[in-house]
Amino acid sequence: MRNAGPIESPTDPFSSVPLPSRATSKKPKIEGLPPGVSRDIFGAPGQQQQEPRRPAGATPPAQSAPNGGALPPATPPSQPWPVNGNPQETPSFGRERPAPALIEPDPPRRRRLLPAITVLLLIAVAMAYLVPAVLMSGSVLRGTRVGGVDIGGLTVTQAAEKLRTELAAKLNKPVVVDIGTSKDTIQPDEAGLQLDVVTTIGEAPSGFPTPFEVWRALTGTTEIEPRVTVDASQLARTVDALAETVDKPPHDGRVTFKGLQPVATPPRDGALIDRAKAVHLISEAFLRGSGSAVLSLEPAQPTTTPEAITKAEAQAKRAVAAPITLTLGDRQAQLTPQTIAANLTFGSDGEGSLAPQFDAKTALTGVESSLVDAAQVPRDATYDVVNGKLVLVPARQGRGVNSKLLARDLAKLVRNGGPRVIPVRLAAAPPQVTTEQVTGLGIKENVASFTSTFECCLPRVTNVRQMAADIDGRLVLPGQTFSLNDVVGERTAEGGYVLAPQTVGGRVITVMGGGASQLATTLYNAAFFGGFDDVAHTPMDYHSNRYPAGRDAALLYPGVDLKWRNDSEHGVLIKTASTATSVTVALWSTKRYDKIEAVESAKRDFTPFRVETGAAAGCRPVIGQQGFTMDVTRVFFKGGDELKRDPKVTTKYRPHTQVTCTGTG
């Protein structure tokens, strides 16, 4: 050992143990004294005994007890001597060293049981999820409800059928529309309301459920809101019909004539439904299921002023005060006050004033022959049908009074006054259709015709026959699109049309030219079997037995039109004929196909009609018609074989409410 010296064995066993000094340290404590030995042998506390060193082998002096008796020396417990570290460091006696901790190993049996228990628990948890999950897979999650209808545990197909059967009836609630002091009811079918079963089922949890879905199925329910759609275009048509009954359009002032007396119509404020807003509010009412919608009429102002009316009245009186003489060289003709009054009106110019508007072309009808030789009048080339055969009527170049200049000059005279003589000028008047055009268009045979029937002597018959006369002799050139509304224009009393009932958006209203859809349907079928392109047609909302199912066409100026295109290389001549109970449209051209057939599907998706009772004086009885859906496909044949076929056209008819009138009015 590096610091170890000779070890001397002490004579006194206690002399080798340093005693604690209170002045230096409280430690070390002397513990573990032999039995019968008191601490007093070390002297009073704080006292330190010093003994002189004695020679080796000397006998220590005897110690005396406090009472004077001698005590035998005590043998202290053996202490280990320091061998490392600082040699000046004093060992501590009586201090117990902590024993190293012992890790008691788990019993072998416990180590084997823990993994087994864990595996069993995992298997139990997995089985608790997998068993119900397997039983629930392939169907809608149990506890799933749509609008109060439980579809849990059903297949997707079964759930869809149940929703159509039970939920559709719950959603079939009308909406009451409150418009000021009046109310009206819009039925779901009038709004095109439909339950979107596919989207609704798509939101329902199905397939193999997750653990969370299994827990939810076993402990609770899943509520899903039904998805409902509203056909905006259908609802817009219904709102249009509703607006026709409640709108109060503003009226611009105007001045007309009753005989020779000017009649002033003062401007009048109006109130109109905001139709786009109405569609939105009614749609929201259906989708929320609130059952009511409040609409308001928005004020609408006319453009003319009362001052403009007064000024126009004065001009009107001056206009019919005397005849107006038209001169052309040495030729003269007079427009009588009656002719002037019949063709002169004062309408809004859009800037607040009234401007004179003169129909010179009509006014010249009776007097132009006095100014222009009959041989100079132009004539369009056309065909007449005589005994079922075409007879060419050749075109003729001509000249006539320039009606546009006459209308301008007469209006100027009415506004400013002056001499009542207007010089007129001739203008070239070429025919719109030349003979060369007609003869080179291949118009030689009847390629298609169609006849529809109606009841005699109703107001609508007048409109059907008038429209047939308006399109008779019209020529449709190759590549040209024929628009029925563009050709006929707005139906007016001056044009020979009358007020008649017409179904618009599911409601029967009275409009000028009502019932003209009969002519549109007749023309549509002639173009259908003639093989011409269908550009635009709108099926009827309801099926009528007088029209072929799936092949009818609605008409309403200006929005609902019938358009077809002459896609052939030949011209098409339209010829019409009408009686008191029928109208016929024939198309003359060159045949391109041997036969054209309409292949119809079976009727499906029948919907029952409602029954209502009306007691109002204006009630109209209506026979109920159930709704249905069907498809029509046009098939073309040539040489005995099918040449082509058009995509099928699907028509969905709504149920027509049966109305029974009980009133005595």
From TrEMBL:
Pfam families cross-referenced by the UniProt entry: PG_binding_4, VanW
InterPro entries: Glycopeptide_resist_protein, Vancomycin_resist_VanW, YoaR-like_PG-bd
Keyword Protein biosynthesis applies: no
Positions of the UniProt region annotated as Disordered: 1-107
tRNA processing listed as a keyword: no
Spans through the membrane: 113-135
Swiss-Prot/TrEMBL keywords: Membrane, Transmembrane, Transmembrane helix
Domain YoaR-like putative peptidoglycan binding: 194-289, 305-422
PANTHER family per UniProt: EXPORTED PROTEIN, EXPORTED PROTEIN-RELATED
UniProt name for this protein: Vanomycin resistance protein VanB
Species in which this protein is naturally found: Nonomuraea glycinis
